[in-house]
Amino acid sequence: xxxxxxxxxxxxxxxxxxxxxxxxxxxxxxxxxxxxxxxxxxxxxxxxxxxxxxxxxxxxxxxxxxxxxxxxxxxxxxxxxxxxxxxxxxxxxxxxxxxxxxxxxxxxxxxxxxxxxxxx
Amino acid sequence: xxxxxxxxxxxxxxxxxxxxxxxxxxxxxxxxxxxxxxxxxxxxxxxxxxxxxxxxxxxxxxxxxxxxxxxxxxxxxxxxxxxxxxxxxxxxxxxxxxxxxxxxxxxxxxxxxxxxxxxxxxxxxxxxxxxxxxxxxxxxxxxxxxxxxxxxxxxxxxxxxxx
Lengths: 120, 163
Prior knowledge:
The complex is a heterodimer. Chain A folds into two domains: 7-75, Orthogonal Bundle (Arc Repressor Mutant, subunit A), CATH 1.10.10.10; 79-120. Residues 1-5 of chain A have low confidence and may be disordered. Chain A is mostly helical. Helices cover 68% and strands 12% of the residues of chain A. Chain B has helices at 30-38, 40-46, 131-135, 141-144, 147-162; strands spanning 11-16, 19-26, 55-61, 68-75, 78-91, 95-99, 108-116, 119-127. In chain B, strands 1-2-8-7-6-5-4-3 form an eight-stranded antiparallel sheet. In chain B, α1 crosses α2. The relative contact order of chain B is 0.17. Mean pLDDT of chain B is 83; it is low at 1-6 and 144-149. At the A-B interface, α5 of A face β1, β2, α1 and α2 of B.
């Protein structure tokens, strides 16, 4: 079967698969922090932390802003719950519509079968 | 909540920042599914689900490249919302592309019908002019409900609650 995982959720799940990155999100939930502060807190090199923040940023979970020499990180604007809800509502509408279309198709198929029998 | 029976069969995804993609397999040949999308007498049987507070009052569709369509929904015989646009490309039974001209920032909708061993894989793409337009796009009549009806519903609900 084809996996229907939206690309952005794919990125989100990948980003969340790492314990350090989950810790960073938790930390940023309490307060904004610079990369240096995060690196210190998680006992990592600056380069290592930059990579983690980069992944979180790519997934839209974190935004960063450089002011002077300090890059400040904060929780991203993407609200995962809102995003999921946005998709779910569209899916509900289209699913209802397509269930009704399935019904129409069933009727068409029965008609076709009945017509076929008449021609025999 | 809606019917969950076949929830797993309709896939909804953001194809890109400004594109919504809906995919589903139908247990019927391409020609039949295409007919259900292009013949108004069939189309009107399914486009507006029965749970919809508004009925589809009229459905005019001239499904050919350059043709137009007009769908009017309403309540108690009065038109509440009209959807209209033009068919940019129609290739029976494989592809229909149309504009949605009822509002600003309308999407261009592309529906493709692919044969999958006698079944049909349907992909519907709505391409909006911007990310913001897709974020704020409405989906059904529930969303498109004109303000006065929403207000009336709120009023009725508050009246009911205060009794």
